[in-house]
Amino acid sequence: MSTTRTLPFDRPGPLDPPPLYAQLRQTEPVSAVVTPGGQQGWLVTSYDAVAKVLSDPRFGLTPPGTPSEGNDTLFQDGAAHTRLRRLVSKAFTARRIATLRPRVEQIAEEHVRAVVGAGPPADLVAGFAAPLAALVIGELLGVTLPDRERFRALVDAVSSTDFLAADVESAAAAGRAWNDLIGYAAELVVTARERPGDDLLSTLITVRDADDGRLSDAELTGMAASLVAAGYLTARNAISVGVIQLVTEGRLAGLAGAPEAVDPVVEEVLRRQAGIVGEPFPRWAQADVELAGVRIASGDLVLVRLEAANRDPGHFTDPDRFLPDRRADSLHLAFGRGAHHCLGAALARVELGAAFTALARHLPGLRLDVPIGQLVWVHGQTDGGPVALPVTW
What is the arithmetic mean of pLDDT over 293-306? Predict the structure, then answer.
């Protein structure tokens, strides 16, 4: 009989996965756990089992039987999700992302120069990662400059709540934070309708589908809220944690004047920080399923761990080393897999590449100004990163 373990597991360091992941991946890739909020569920740690959960429709984003009425976001399953994703994906074409690259690179350059001009030491979260992420998603959605501080505050409130909390007070706080963000997103939709521009939200308002028609106001609002949250919070954390990886591995300076090296480095950063920066939303079994030899009952909570899957030695050679020139046996799962694969994956790659290149060009000697163990981290339901990142050069 397997042992039921309580989350979270201990880490030797902020960038190091819990050693228990490696043990479970080898001996018990689907193991019984209890969440910090007291819910029982299953923890999935092997690459193959994680990939199956993410791509198998028998694992859904809500418990079976949950009414779909009132859910107008991509965080649902089945035909409703398929329709929304088909419509929204029209605004995330490869051509559109490619046209954004020069502007993202310009924004990164401007913010690095501001950091350099202010002189060391600096907080790279407040001075670079956060404003860069806010400006990129703000311009993408057509959010005016005075409003960006407001949406940063709203997203920070959402990220600090626990949507799986068992106690009534925490659950209520999570609901209030999300409702506040939805209210703000509704204002963005109204503004975009009144003054459409060359931005993503205006594009979403005009997309059509031959069979499904346009997105409703509620669907637009839900999409805007999701994009604000992911586009700011995840990007901020990904840039910050990526910089920590690069400076501790001595990889940053080598990116200056070597554009061909940037993309492989970005992919290795993504592989290693998935699960630190973010985990996929919890899944619930929609039917009785056997996973890696374990019977999971309909309605059971299932938690995948990308951090464990992306270090599975059965799929990645020497997985604990930072090897941007590796010939991976498998694609990393940082952006998920299947129907809920991250729509913003291409934009995230552009943003990370621009951030790392600008830092390498202007601050090749960048280093942490405090020991990594002294950094204070914030961990939300599906995202995490340093509160501040003191650096010098």
Answer: 97
